[in-house]
Structure formats: C-alpha cells, structure tokens
Amino acid sequence: KGGKFGERWAEICEAYGVEVIPVDIEYGKAVKPDLLDYLLKKERDVKAVFVTQCETSTGVVDDIERIANVVKGHNVLLIVDAITGIGVHPLMMDDWGIDIAVAGSQKGCMLPPGLAFVCVAQSAWDAIEKSILPKYYWDFKKMRKGLGNKTTPFTPAISLITAAGKALDMIKEEGIENVWKRHARLAHATREGIKALGLELFAGEASSNVLTAVKSPEGIDINSAIKRLRDETGVTITGGQEELKGKIFRIGHMGYVNDFDIILAISAVEKCLYENGYKIELGKGVSKVQEVLVSCKK
Amino acid sequence: KGGKFGERWAEICEAYGVEVIPVDIEYGKAVKPDLLDYLLKKERDVKAVFVTQCETSTGVVDDIERIANVVKGHNVLLIVDAITGIGVHPLMMDDWGIDIAVAGSQKGCMLPPGLAFVCVAQSAWDAIEKSILPKYYWDFKKMRKGLGNKTTPFTPAISLITAAGKALDMIKEEGIENVWKRHARLAHATREGIKALGLELFAGEASSNVLTAVKSPEGIDINSAIKRLRDETGVTITGGQEELKGKIFRIGHMGYVNDFDIILAISAVEKCLYENGYKIELGKGVSKVQEVLVSCKK
Known about the structure:
The structure is a homodimer. By secondary structure, the first copy, chain A, is α/β, with parallel strands linked by helices. In chain A, 43% of the residues lie in helices and 12% in strands. Chain A has 2 domains: 4-173, Type I PLP-dependent aspartate aminotransferase-like (Major domain) (Aspartate Aminotransferase, domain 2, 3-Layer(aba) Sandwich), CATH 3.40.640; 175-295, Aspartate Aminotransferase, domain 1 (Alpha-Beta Complex). The first copy, chain A, contains 11 helices and 9 strands.
C-alpha cells in the first residue's frame, strides 16, 4: 500500500471478502523486497502477493524482478498491476515468474481507455480452477474457452481491439527494447529539467519512467495553478490524488511521446510556477532538458 | 427464460448466489403478463423481476408496458435488459415504473460496442443501499457519487463516451418518436419481404423491430450458406445461437439503418438461399420490400 493503486488491490480483495495483510509503504518509496520476504516467512497462510509495478499516484516504480525473486521462494502467486508500467518498464513475465499481470490500453499501449488486458501464466490456472468467489463477466475460464475459438465470451469493445492491433504493430516496429529506452531517456530529461528548476522529485531514486511526480513548492496553490494552465494553454499537468492533493504535481511521459513533448511540458511547468509567484529562473528547466536530450543520443 | 439473454439474467444471479425462479417461455414467444402475475401471487418472497425487452437470440419483443403494469401490483423491483431494445422500441422508464434498465452502446445507439448504460430509478436506491453482494467496479453508489462531480469513479472508455454524445445528438435531431417509427417501418418491410419468399418468421406476432428471426428452410445448411455469403459479398446475416443453431437465421435492422439497407439485406437472403439450392422465385422478396417501402411513407 504505497499509493492509491496499491490500496485499490486491497479494496478489491476486501470487497470480495478476501483477507488482506497490507504492507504499508511510505508514499514516494518503493516496496522493500526484504520486508516482503520477512512477512511471507511470518505469515504462512498467504495465497497471493499483489503489487503495483508503477504507482501512478506517487510516480514510484517497484523492482518487480527482485520482488518476483522473493515471492518465488514461497508457495504464493504473484499478481502484478502493470497498467501503467507496461510498454514503459520491462516486465518479463515468464523469466521472472509472474503468475498474473494486468494491463490497460490507455497508457504505454497508446490507445484510448476502454480495454483491460490480463495475462495469466500456466502457474495461475490451478488457483483459477479452484476459485469459488462469485464472478460472471470476469470469468477467466470462459475467456480462455472463447480465445481458443478466436472469439470472446461477450461482445467486446471491437473498435479498441482493432486499434490495439495497430498499436502493437507500432511497438513491434520500434522494438520493445527501444520503446523502454525511449521512455527512460525522456523520463531522465524530465527529471533533470525539474531539478534544474530547484524542485524536488517526490519519488527520488524510485522515480518511474511513466511519469514524474514533483513536490509542490511551498506557498503555491498548485491545483488552481494547474487548472489555469490547462484552461489557458491546453497543457494538462496533474495534481496529487487524495492524501497527496496539493502536495505534488505529476507530468506524464508514457506512450506516444517524443523529445518536443518533454520540452513543452517543462516550459509549461516553468510558466505555471512563474505566473503563480514562485521564484524560478525562466528557461533554466527547458535549457537543461534540451542539453540532456541532445547529449543523450537515442 | 425465452432465449439466451433471458437465460443470462438467470446465470448472473446464480453466479452471485441469488435464488432464481425461472419463467420458461417457448423460444420465439413473448412473456405472458398473466403468467407473471400468477407466479408473483404464488411466490411471495420474490424481490425482483428480470426481463429482456428484445430477445436478440429469438427476435422476440416483450410488452414491457404490460409487464410493468403487472409488476406494479406486487412489491418487487422490475429490471429490464434494454440492450437491443433501446432506441428501437419505446421504453418509458418513469411512466411505466421501471426500476432499473440496462442498455448498451452498440445497437440502437449506433456506436461501437464498449459501453453499458444503467438507468436507476429513485425507487431502486433503497435496495442498492442495502445490497450486500460483493462488487467493486460495478458499485452504483460510487458511480452516483462520481456523476455528482461530473466524473466517473474509474477511468472510462473516453472515446466511446464522446461518440455517445454525438450519437445522442443525432437521435435528438431525428426525434426519438421518429427513430422508433423508422425502425418499425424497416422491420415491417423486412418481415413482408421474408414472407413473400415463402419463409416463416420465427417470432411470429412477437417479432421485434430490432431484428427479424427467420426459420431456416428445410434441407439447407444455413450456417455454411451464411458464411459463404459473408466471405463472398461482405454481407453478414447471423445464424442461431446454441439451441437455435442451424434452425434460424437473423437479419439485424437496428441503429443507423435506412431503406437501401433493407433492400440489400433481402437481396442477400435471396442470393444466399438460391445459390444453396433452396427454391425461391428470385426478386420476389426485394420487390415486396420495395413496394412496402414506397407505399408506407416515412
């Protein structure tokens, strides 16, 4: 539970009467694999570990490879929320031994929202077969049967599935390793631009390549500043959610994004802070981004 | 339970442990409101009646107004699957006293599939507040709270919602009464065309304006005939599902459909049957459709 989406895993389980042992993580920090190992040794009845690869609410990326290594030592399933992580950070389902991964269409997959993807490893089917929790539309057995006949058990969002085929073609053409590198490079440039403005990264060392979360400067009403920026220029920067409201702002850089998008985003941050009375040296962020992008070749 | 979608209501209830008293209806026939009244008098513990307005699997339309009148006399909720009925047959939720209606984007609403709409009358909220069945994403209380803030509790299929706004503008411009009339007229022409070919309507008097279900002629393999037609001409006529496989074929005429679509559909039926050895007088169906469409003014 290191953010809104980690908490959502817990809420979903609890809604279905599944007992949850929360692993509380300070917002902005990653899961410590050692702590997870300790807890799994202590709690012998755990059936599954739910983690979030990229916690969009805090900008943190978890080290799924190390987490998977820890989980492998215990007789439990590993279920990963890769909704924003997919296509941005590597996720080697088979190599790392992930049992179930969930992804969405609207982030690294470059599509409008409306589709969820669930990848189920062979290792998870035993639990699925035995599952007695009530379900109808989300019955994986029905889905597997449908896929075997090249169809789906219920009418799907066909236009988005067609678009997904196209997006996957684009990713295949670029090469998934290059897609990961592109995101790493753009995220690095964003972080350097932010630091050059004297601002602090919320997720520090654990900052993901999905989005950059930044601590809001003292004495500025970040949410109304962001709203004004959006209304005046059409650039959307996002504030914090729930407990983090007013405390951070977030710059997304996943999916169909290039160098100029990062320049634009940092220039918008500069404008937004400057016009709302926060002292920055105008141009310092964009210069730094420019410098990083030119020196770090693609 | 007069078809696949009536059966689905029962399956969904049973998946969640809700006891179901099935009202078995012969396929191709409508629900008899008197029988429903009799059953509701006999079974005093019933909490809700689930019906399907248009049973897409059989082409039947149920008389929801009369059903609602019966249900009103008992202390139960009326929940209507209006997924294909909406925008084709009238459904006066408030006037008739329907508690919950469910619709989809992909039929009379003229959109690609991917959205479900649920209309909840004030009268249903008491049951929703008391409901203890497990749910997370389909929590109506969360949805109502979100809508109050002009948002949704989870990321929705935004591109389809935007398209839905456009489709509703089109329906508003045509006028819903005119939309109903257009469907009634096109369905009538389709039925007359089918009868002129010596074929029999599967749903007889209960035929809906959503689609026309036709009994497959003896001695013809309707499914492979339909498949060949689709591959050769791109025209899709649908076969029967499950128990009705091979026994009927179905012509859809809901949504963004006009006179020429009906001419085309009946000409395709003629071609398909003729080329597969079934004796018909070529042109007899299309002539009849042409005649009906010209004589029945819009």
